[in-house]
Amino acid sequence: MTSRMRRRLLAATLAAPFARRASAQPLTCGTQTPRQTEGPFFTPDSPRRTSLVEKGAKERFVLEGLVLTPQCRPVANALVDLWHADEQGEYDNRGFRYRGHTFTDAEGRYRFETIVAGLYPGRTRHYHVKVQAPKRRILTTQLYFPGEPGNARDGIHRPELEMKVDKDTGRFDFVVDA
Question: Which of 10-19, 40-49, 152-161 has the lowest mean pLDDT?
């Protein structure tokens, strides 16, 4: 079995619990954000920073939103950890390029400055995220770009996890157990 076939089999296996519903509805506060795999490239202890922009980055992108309870209340001081591939679709497995974390403010807001994630082989464009309300279980998930050609071919992609994108800004509100 080739490595490409193994990757596809692994993606299909991981995607099975997250099979898409035919008529997916947008998330609301009452619905917790779906969990997804962290993938093979998570690195703990990322630096606390909101700008992940590296020197020479051309295509800047802002990711922002809220962390909310199922009752639509903001979650203050929630950890939001973000990581993604660079422009060439490569993950930094030695350092912390395009990796960082922040904490939400009193209104549950978070914001990162970064780039549009590159295409990792076999996947659509995506960001990896871990969100944790204080002293609660960690939510691990992925965020996707709407209208991306690779969405239909990616066995893990879920429309419910697509950001609302306007030019160079993406927005996603997480709903967590708090």
Answer: 10-19
